[in-house]
Amino acid sequence: MEYDAIILGAGGAGLMCAAVAGQAGARVLVVDHAPKAGKKILISGGGRCNFTNTGTEAANFLSENPHFAKSALSRYTQWDFLGLVQAHGIAWHEKTLGQLFCDESARQIVAMLLAECEKGGVEVRLSTEIGGVRHADGLYHAAGETARALVIATGGPSIPKMGATGVAYDLARQFGLRVVTPRPALVPFTLGEDDAAFKAISGVAVPAVARVGDAAFAEAALFTHRGLSGPSMLQVSSYWSSGQAVEINVLQGAAEKLRAARARMPRARLKAALAEHLPKRLVEVLAERITLPTELGNASDAALDGVARQLEALTFHPTGTEGYAKAEVTAGGIDTAALSSKTMEARAVPGLYAIGEAVDVTGWLGGYNFQWAWSSGWAAGQAIAARRG
Ligand SMILES: Cc1cc2nc3c(=O)[nH]c(=O)nc-3n(C[C@H](O)[C@H](O)[C@H](O)COP(=O)(O)OP(=O)(O)OC[C@H]3O[C@@H](n4cnc5c(N)ncnc54)[C@H](O)[C@@H]3O)c2cc1C
User: Fold this and answer.
1) Is the pLDDT of residue 291 over 80?
2) CA–CA distance, 345 with 173 (Å, rounded to integer)
3) Whose CA is closest to atom 53 on ligand 1?
4) pLDDT at residue 388, rounded to an integer
5) Distance between CA 312 and CA 295 in Å, rounded?
6) What pLDDT shows up at residue 334?
7) Which atom of ligand 1 is nearest to the CA of 34?
8) Would the N or C end of the chain have less CB density within 10 A of its end CB?
9) What gap in Å lies between CA 282 and CA 276, rounded to an integer?
């Protein structure tokens, strides 16, 4: 039997693509080496899957071509996916910053996608190796089967212990597509011995604004025994390159807060004023790094402003990140210049498609990466159905 498409990878992007193509009449086979479909969906969002973000737009993604994602994101939007979730009776809620989660379980999202695949007569073959891929006479051969189209939906190498691999890049190179150097993203930073005092306050979290270069995110920061984590740190990690400084504003409006404290309690020590706003363990560590006047009443405006500046730009030089073992996504990937933004088809290789995390489109933390999986999967699914003619 000849398929219209073989889709490599039964993750969010592959399953969405398969369901859309299948429901439009295409004969579709999905192949995955894992024993379960949608494994990353199952563990996402603490088991509740942050399946999209109400604010999704191309500006929430990193890519060498920041415009590439626009077409797919605008043709299959967060509202389209939410509509599907609601049609399946899955209860959901908004947490913060437009992030939508299942009330109950991420398993419902996988079940929904598999039900949509079934509706389209899609065959999903798990525990199956792709094997070598060949392309001859307009046909693709993979996993012992033949098809007129091949979709690379095998994601990136983040969390290898879950079966994630870089096979997407090998396949892309086999077909002459450039790969933008992959790197771990949405990943905690590691700190060195100079910052041992901060590693010792592992578990302390603060609302903060983290900054790397021009990228800044106002969300919680978390000190860990290895370095820095929490949403704001994960967000800026996607923009970080080795050697760059990470700045954290741990106390917004610090100058006003310190002056107000001086007026209210001139005999108090500065530490006491900071402890009104920051966790005590952090204040102790800050007191070692920042020169603090002992008594507030004795501190000049200039001295307080100096302290404020340090609190607003606490600077770290990470030794690195925790790498693919802990990265929620992989940034970089198959160069978008090689793909049509409308169909995800390789411009120079008819019938070859690449979707989801395998492509050089990387979302912020907060449901954006799944929305890219759904949108790019939908776009390719439509195109595969259309090419049947
Ligand atoms: C812990 C964690 C939590 C996350 N939480 C969220 C969240 O809440 N919201 C959000 O938007 N994003 C989240 N993400 C990111 C999100 O999971 C991914 O961006 C998304 O799953 C990418 O979808 P995909 O279909 O492109 O790839 P994947 O979901 O990675 O699917 C790829 C599939 O290909 C298969 N595969 C890989 N290599 C091979 C091979 N050699 N042979 C055969 N099959 C292969 C894999 O088994 C897998 O099933 C999270 C990621 C992690 C790791």
Assistant:
1) no
2) 15
3) 328
4) 83
5) 21
6) 98
7) 47
8) C
9) 12
Listed in order, strand segments (DSSP E) in 250-358 are 314-316, 320-321, 329-334, 352-354
**Ligand 1 pocket check: which of 154, 174, 334, 376 to mutate, most ligand atoms within 8 Å of Cβ?**
154
**pLDDT digits 0-9 by tens, 158-179:** 999 999 999 999 999 999 999 9
Within 8 A by CB and 6+ apart from 353, the residues are 17, 149, 150, 151, 152, 343, 344, 345, 346, 380, 383, 384
Closest C-alpha residue for ligand 1 atom 21? 40
Give residue for tokens 């807060």: 257
Ligand 1: distance of its center to the CA of 356 in Å?
A: 8
Residue holding tokens 């917004």? Answer: 252
Q: What is the pLDDT of residues 70-123, one digit of tens each?
A: 999 999 999 999 999 999 999 999 999 999 999 999 999 999 999 999 999 999
The answer on pLDDT for 292 being more than 90 is no
To test ligand 1's pocket by mutation, which of 17, 39, 44 has the most ligand atoms within 8 angstroms of CB?
44
CATH numbers and ranges of domains, the chain: 2-184+328-388 (3.50.50.60), 189-321 (2.40.30.10)
Nearest-atom number in ligand 1 for the CA of 369 is 11
Instruction: Measure the CA–CA gap between 248 and 223, rounded to whole angstroms.
Output: 12
Residue 346 DSSP symbol = B
